[in-house]
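[09:14] KT: can someone run the structure on this one? pasting the chain below
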Amino acid sequence: MNSTTLEGGNVASGENTRFIILISCVATIGGFLFGFDSGVINGTVDGLQAAFDSDSVGTGFNVASMLLGCAIGAFFAGRLADSYGRRNVLIVSAVFFIVSAWGSGIATGSLEFVIYRVLGGFAVGAASVMSPAYISEVSSARYRGRLATVQQIAIIGGLFAAFLSNYLLAKVAGGSVTPYWLGYEAWRWMFWVEILPAGLFLVALLFIPESPRYLVVKGRHEEALAVLQKLYGSDEGRRKLTEIQGSLASDHHRPRLSDLISKTTRKVRPIVWVGIGLATFQQLVGINVVFYYGAVLWQAVGFSENDALLINVLSGALSIGACIVTVLLIDRIGRKPLLWTGSVGMAVSLAAVVVAFASGSLDAAGKLQLSGSMGVLALVAANLYVVFFNLSWGPVMWVMLGEMFPNQIRGSGLAVAGLFQWSANFLVTMTFPMLLAGIGLAATYGLYTLAAIISVFFVLRFVHETKGRELEQMEG
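[09:31] RB: done, structure tokens below
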């Protein structure tokens, strides 16, 4: 069928844009589950403390345990996807999402809970790198950035759905630790809600094709041609097959981690370091402290549990709006301008949060008390920070990781970058309760502010634009 681009212009005869968008949307369900599984823990912290009688360190590990699985899942997903395919890895991740959601809710002790959360982490880690990679490998350069950005909207949509679900369940039950339907506490149902979208993801994946670039790498050229022609039409499909074959012509061996080492310099390729930097800075700015500990954070500055959960819903809605703006801009102004603008915005808004928190005092219970004006400043600045993140580093980092590596090293590059991304996520998440108890909110957010400032210079110096370039034009 003939179709049009997302901008409304004419495209090559036969391009099936609607089908490309459809299968990309299926892949983004993995992003939705990534967001839901990451955000659902936000409203269950009190329930975990009560059920497992854990201290701040134990609670931090219960919350952060999934991230260990994410780091492992992201690393091995990239490697396994080179061997067994992008689609097959996503199918396995869907099964893991279902098992983890059920097990996390039924767990009766910390060890059992951690096992199921780590299993869910495998799924999140795999989906986090494979969904954007799949989208990049089936879409055209004209609108690849926009489709890949939908992945971040799905992630934030998952976070928003988790926040809203947590809020409604806690409100109806009378609290996250209060028994609800069938006698199970509300926090357990917060996990079980995830089974529904995970089941949908599993079924939908059975009806999408494998990545044509993976098929070419595996030497399955006839299958790749069939997929490319379904995506782009007969003539354009053959041309793209020739391009992909040409990009791999000088190197026919099976992709491996050693491909990340330059054959001439015997050093790690510069593009790999850029990928690691993008992945790491996205976490060092502290975004997931807001996502994972939002309820705890706002209660720490005087809001009730109910109000804190409602603020999370507001943050989720603002995040979705910011991502929609990114969809409109990313293929027009490019990736790099969005990144450095976001870094500047995050640095300023985080600094304002630090000022607000530094003005407070501790009450007898050890909670930070803010004046009316400083409380408003903290709330507004924190939500501005979330907006700037989701205008830039939130979606753009995943877009770039999915498209910046050459075909031969895409799986390995994603594996390493994903490992660093989730390891940094674990470090930030695990240390936040300890930093909160040790140096306080202001100093802790000061560290995230410093990371945001450094990220400005990293982008300006090391990140190169990928807007409008076909994947076969990417250089290592």
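[09:33] KT: thanks! The beta strands are 361-362, 368-369.
[09:34] RB: yep, looked fine to me
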